Amino acid sequence: MSLRKPAVLLVTSKWWPASARMALALLQHGCRVDVLSPPGHPVLRVPGLGRCWRYRPFDSLGSLRAALAQGRDHDLIVPCDDGVVAQLVTLCAQVPALRGLIEKSIGPMASHEFLLGRHPLLSLAGSLGIRVPETRAVRGPLDVQAWFDEGHEQAVLKRDLSCGGSGVRVLHSQSEGPAAWQALTRQSHWGPLLRQSLIERDPLTWWSRRQPGASTMSLQRYVPGQPANTLMLCWRGELLALVSVSVVETRGATGHATVVRRMHNEDMAEAARRLCQRLRLSGFHGLDFILEAGTGLPWLIEFNPRSTQLGHMAWPGQPSLAATLAAQLRGVPVPAPRHPLPEGLVSLFPQRPLGQVLGHHDVPPDQPALVRALSEPAWPQRQWTYRCYSALRPARPGERVLHESQDL
């Protein structure tokens, strides 16, 4: 066993709290954590961080390459959103000196096309015997019309290299297809790009628009039921650990989860094992399922090649995936769970205020400064440009959607 602390580079471009919780968990389990993030990101409020780099909005790929070059002693990279994974894939092909570290962090080059493309990944999953709804690549509104002409009643239109539900539209009829297609393709036009760059301060905006996957669409058969998620930790094709939850409540019909419950499902676990082994994955990877109404059978609908908000959570008898990763890097046994969450409903912090859910609110009580940073609006939303824009645009719906008949 080496006495040197394993060094992890955590990279995030989105204003999500999961990256801060992951950084804190890795630090608590004996890792050194360096960070590449936008300025003002809440992850920078985590105490004990190592080196911190800032994403440059007009040279985001150069920012990542510079962080990797300056931190040659990194043992692993932990990407926290899909755009970062796309940049790692690009650097893996362009910079041979970084290939070993990137492959160790996400998987070999031969698997990278499956990490970024929804249709190729789900096609591969189907060939492995995993239950997948019919999914096909589409190139225009006429392909969407043809889908309904074949007798399909509902569909889900998805754009690659999107996350958090922003690139997903549920089509309840053929008449909704043209508007949904236009809404998703409009996101690559100059107006939305300027909003993302200048108002939302997304540092990957200008880099992402040049990527082929930014305009790739797929259409998927709609499966009615309850969402469920699995986050797996892989190591060169071996599944080290996983955690699965059923989603009780989401932010909007296709948004992120706000309330979850831990679950065990062998079909979901087997899907994780098969994909991990076939693609020889490393690092954190998430699987999104729908538990079909009436049967409870899990259908794999999406793959996320990154850490999610489940990575830091521990339950009785199940250490967190962050603890398992730290033990793997340090060459020590996985420790017993620290501060395990109680069984039952878990309200994800900071999406739901404390006291509004019958269950546990996932708050780090020993980190008051971090709690304050995660509770306040994201840094871009505190700028005058965002306030002016918000005053002029119509309010976006922010309703929560229940996925169980349960009073919260």
TrEMBL record:
<dbReference type="InterPro" id="IPR003806">
    <property type="entry name" value="ATP-grasp_PylC-type"/>
</dbReference>
<keyword id="KW-0547">Nucleotide-binding</keyword>
<keyword id="KW-0067">ATP-binding</keyword>
<dbReference type="Pfam" id="PF02655">
    <property type="entry name" value="ATP-grasp_3"/>
</dbReference>
<feature type="domain" description="ATP-grasp">
    <location>
        <begin position="122"/>
        <end position="334"/>
    </location>
</feature>
<dbReference type="InterPro" id="IPR011761">
    <property type="entry name" value="ATP-grasp"/>
</dbReference>
<protein>
    <submittedName>
        <fullName>ATP-grasp domain-containing protein</fullName>
    </submittedName>
</protein>
